[in-house]
User: What shape does this take?
Amino acid sequence: MLKKVLMSGNEALACGAIQAGCHFYAGYPITPQNELTAYMAQRMPEVGGIFIQAESELAAINMVFGAAAAGKMAITSSSSPGISLKQEGISYIAGCELPAVIVNVMRGGPGLGNIAPAQSDYFQATRGGGHGDYHSIVLVPSCVQEAYDLMFLGFALADKYRNPVIILADGMLGQMMEPLQLSDKNNLKTENRKLKTKEWALTGCKNRKPNIIRSLYLAEGALEKLNLVLQEKYKTIQQKEARYEDMFLGDAQIILVAYGSMARVAKSAVHKLRAKGKKIGLIRPITVWPFPKEAFTKHLKPNTKYLVIEMSYGQMLEDVQLAVGGKVKVEFLGRAGGGIPTEEEIINRIARF
Amino acid sequence: MQKIFSHPKSLRNIPTHYCSGCGHGIVHRLIAEIIDELGIRERVIAIAPVGCAVLAYDYWDFDCSEAAHGRALAVATAIKRVSPENIVFTYQGDGDLAAIGTSETLHTANRGENLTVIFINNAVYGMTGGQMAPTTLLGQKTATTPKGRQAKLEGYPLKISEILAQLPAVKYIERCSLHTPQEVLKTKKAIRQAFQNQMDNLGFSLVEILSPCPTYWGMSPKKALDWIQDVMVKEFPLGRMK
Assistant: This one.
């Protein structure tokens, strides 16, 4: 049994990434995710990987593009305004079908906003974010342990589908310290992090035809063909990779829906109300793209009411509405710009149902 | 019989999309010849720009990647860092390297990344229809400077090579031209030096090449070469800067 350590969410994300086999990090300073970058600066060279403090978010994401094109597992991290800058690069990564992981420790917006936790980048993460018809796989950890654990899944999915994976966390999770059970899934030594051969990667054309990494297709019909390949991949991901946690759905008349740090507040409201005999349950998406629609369709009873709770003004709300297809009532409670719906606000809101 | 001239192995034997009199074809070939001569084709990774040479990977016969406009040196930095055994070079135009990608250019050079940069300066944006480039000369007419570039409004031609030559981590900077066969040979020598430097782990090397764009200069191919010789080299003096 490996030891338990006390770690912040940001450090846990970095620690998990390195253990998951990540070989390359590039990033640019921005609060509230700087502990992740600092951890990488310290640890990457120790495990034989590469750390670069880039001159901008644009450079950082394009460095990740380069490392991924060379067949290495690569990651960048930032917070909301910085993630906006990375969108062009993420679109290229999706178009070139490269595996990469991008961490967004969300803060308040729009604009420069503030450094308080928020969940206002949900649309940007789940709808593509950059130009073109593409999707990133989006994982949403709700505690330090899960931040660490989801890194293994994140790199596995990026590698499997040759697709960008976004870890969508928030400033609260990034800064919070919690006990973390380390895994022995992967040894930290370089020789144990050898990657599978990637026949598409740029390694020099020894004993094979040259490889080209590109998203430019000018010939008639060629780009449509690439898009159809991508759409087929996204369909497979939607069928196979949706994940969620649920609580007390069997008899629930009210179901709370929340993700990330927000889900922890919701969970604690559920326990309090259950103790008072209220038939209440919770759906906590672990992936928000693909969105776990099945969690909703499986338990669709006509009298059930949903309450979506977010640190935004209703972004995941739209996915819940789409999932229930107008068949049941969906209420919403949300604050943003640093405001966080409290347990008390949730309980008061339910009392008004 | 001894064979003394043939098509470079590193260049596919297909027609290019370049206009007649364009310099890109010449430089593509010089690079391919040098890669063959140095015997590094199986180690090379090229980064193509956004601009007229965006399809360079259709012509070279070795591993290549695209890069977003201006980001070639960020992509190249990462490839070289994770695969130092590969020979990594970028091929960029004036807009890509000295306008939208200025930050990447400056900082990659300042880090002294062990890379080779081939910088095509034709004083105009070709792919998008002849707009003003950072290197457009004063008085030069383009689609976006219809009365000619004016210092008051658009500033002066940006001499990025001179700026980069100031940086302590930069190993080698030379400006060459394609306007006569002798200059083409000098250009080839400079490109070879820039690749050799990388093979010897010496650091950041850049060759700027003054290259004709008859289409958007509104000249015949011959006149365009004369214009480099008579006008352009006065603004962009040839020679080694570092």
